[in-house]
Amino acid sequence: TTTTTTTKPTPAPTQAPSSSETPLVLVTMGSDSDLPVLKAGLDILREFGVPFALDITSAHRTPKYMMRVADEAAGKGIKVIIAAAGGAAHLPGMISSETPLPVIGVPVKATHLDGMDSLLSIVQMPRGVPTATVGINNSTNAALLAVRILGSFVPDYQEKMKRYQAEMEEQVIVKGGRLRE
Ligand code: RP5
């Protein structure tokens, strides 16, 4: 006889969980030297009340651990992965190769090449292994994109995103008005 095991998918939450709940976003980086660049993005996740987990998973220094983290993330309830790396920035792409989750890469300006090396390492993925890429050091946009993805199935996050966009628009219009005064 053969035994079949079925994996029960983690149901998508429909309400924004409190920050003490299971992380929905995994934010990982190639080195703790990337952390200052991620600070702005972490502030955004906190502002939107998105529970997140932080880790260091280096594609080159801890390849086995990185693959394990990528392999297990979906089963732990993670919905989006943000991965930051600089230089030969293989982390986002390698994680993307091992998980079915959306992965957002943050190219970190870490070397003498002004972050162009990181950007190109992350964005030039082969067909079949999509990895979203934000601008160099732009962890803010990585976090906002993660919130938008979550907002597709968590109405609370989508409502908060609409308010964020409305406030941003208002600020620009007010500043423009001041220039005309
Ligand atoms: C990458 O190398 C890291 O993501 C970091 O941006 C860069 C430099 O790392 P450290 O030498 O500061 O640890 O793997």
Automatic annotation (TrEMBL):
The keyword ATP-binding applies. GO terms for biological process: 'de novo' IMP biosynthetic process. Residues 1-21 have a biased composition (Low complexity). Keywords: ATP-binding, Decarboxylase, Lyase, Nucleotide-binding, Purine biosynthesis. GO terms for molecular function: ATP binding; metal ion binding; phosphoribosylaminoimidazole carboxylase activity. The keyword ATP-binding applies. Residues 1-21 are annotated as: Disordered. This is Phosphoribosylaminoimidazole carboxylase. The chain holds residues 432 to 612 of 624 of the full protein.
